[in-house]
Design a protein that fits this description.
Blueprint (H helix, E strand, L loop, with lengths): L1 E2 L1 H11 L19 E2 L5 H7 L17 E5 L5 E5 L3 H7 L5 H7 L4 H7 L3 H15 L4 E2 H9 L7 E4 L4 E4 L1 H10 L2 E4 L6 E4 L11 H15 L4 H8 L3 H6 L5 E6 L2 E6 L3 H6 L6 E4 L11 H4 L6 H4 L7 E5 L2 E11 L2 E8 L5 H17 L4 E7 L1
Parallel strand pairs: 1-10, 15-16
Antiparallel strand pairs: 2-4, 3-4, 5-9, 6-7, 8-9, 10-11, 12-13, 13-14, 14-15
Helix pairs in contact: 3-9, 6-7, 6-8
């Protein structure tokens, strides 16, 4: 079946509830794949973009329904607490080569260490579990964990001019070890999750459920797209590709979607909305960037290595960027559009800016514009 780009965009906007059809934070569909919480109030802005009413200010943290933890690609993510144990098993490395990639190691470096990558991964998980038995800052945890792992796993750190466990080993190990983070702490404070199970191997059904969730929210997509999101080896993901999918052609590119979502794909109404999405909003996590933004000349602006901006989404199209600047209780949102926007779009931007100000606790907001 041939599917147009416009149909895919309309489908994703609806599937991710960007029409503000979400009924409550805990039931938001995007939590099936997690919300990256990089930056100020990133998760709460993602909630607000999908809910008719403002999200509660304190629903994330130990003892609460949502938890913040290092998970996908070692980044801080918000997930439903009840999903964490299954997620940890879904994100366990799928092979020796996959483990080496997640540890940011090469075959020769693993060979020199004399410890297989999968074993190194498990060693890091065990050490994290042993060390973090109460709230503990990242630095203290790193120091204690380093003493419990073989020296061949230590890495040179330019920042602190010492050798210790690498971030690429410590971060993925945290979720598998049953740890979460205290929100709004810098450096991060790690906290053990009560009654958490410790992951020791991959749970294939849990992984396939996570793959299916990605396809439901950011599909049609390919094994390479999903592997990029999971930070997994493409060949391993493809070998465990779930059943119940339909292959379609999107602008000549093959993609897969769960069969149960085909009607939603072909009948999704065109998006008619304005949203100011945060830099790491789930909508922007799609790996097929050429599809969501065909103009490659703006890709470096939208996805720089450091300092990503938020985006202006108008009727399903990304038409500009925005950056916040706070001064006391005043928030200024600087919008740079890629081309002149109609007055109706600017009205929508002003309305969305007011909502972002409310999320961030600002009492005054101004929008500055270019184009």
């Amino acid at each position: 079946m041939k599917i147009s780009r416009a149909q895919v965009i309309a489908y994703r906007v609806a599937a991710q509830e960007l029409d503000r059809s979400g009924r409550s934070v805990g039931r938001l569909a995007v939590l099936d794949i997690g919300i990256q919480d990089s930056g100020v109030d990133a998760a709460r802005m993602a909630f607000d973009a999908r809910l008719a009413t403002a999200p509660p200010p304190d629903g994330i943290g130990p003892g609460k329904p949502l938890a913040l933890t290092w998970s996908l690609r070692g980044a801080p993510y918000v997930h439903r607490r009840r999903d964490l144990d299954a997620l940890a098993r879904a994100l366990w490395p799928l092979s020796e080569a996959d483990a080496a990639g997640r540890l940011n190691e090469t075959g020769p470096s693993i060979a020199r260490a004399g410890i297989p990558a999968l074993e190194q991964y498990a060693v890091a998980v065990g050490a994290m579990r042993e060390v973090v038995t109460k709230p503990m800052g990242k630095g203290a945890a790193s120091t204690a964990v380093t003493k419990r792992i073989p020296k061949v796993m230590w890495r040179n750190c330019r920042a602190c001019k010492a050798q210790h466990i690498s971030d690429s080993a410590m971060r993925p190990a945290a979720l598998a070890a049953g740890l979460e983070m205290e929100p709004d702490t810098s450096p991060p404070v790690l906290v053990p999750r009560p009654r958490a199970s410790v992951a020791t191997d991959v749970d294939v059904p849990a992984l396939q459920k996570l793959i299916t969730a990605y396809l439901e929210l950011l599909g049609p997509a390919t094994p390479a797209d999903v592997a990029g999101y999971l930070d997994a080896r493409r060949a391993d993901v493809q070998a465990l590709w779930p059943d119940g999918l339909v292959e379609v052609s999107v602008e000549g590119r093959a993609g897969w979607l769960p069969a149960k979502r085909m009607d939603a794909l072909t009948t999704a109404p065109a998006a008619e909305l304005v949203r100011l999405l945060g830099a790491f909003d789930p909508y922007l996590q799609a790996r097929d960037r050429d599809l969501i933004v065909p103009d490659r000349s703006v890709h470096k602006t939208l996805w720089p290595v450091l300092g990503r901006p938020g985006v202006v989404l108008v009727d399903g199209e990304i038409l500009g960027t925005w950056r916040p600047r706070s001064s006391g209780k005043k928030l200024t949102i600087a919008v740079q559009s890629f081309a002149p926007l109609p007055p109706s779009a600017w009205t929508g931007v002003e309305d969305e800016a007011a909502r972002i100000a409310a999320v961030r606790g600002a009492t005054d907001v101004a929008v500055t514009r270019a184009n």
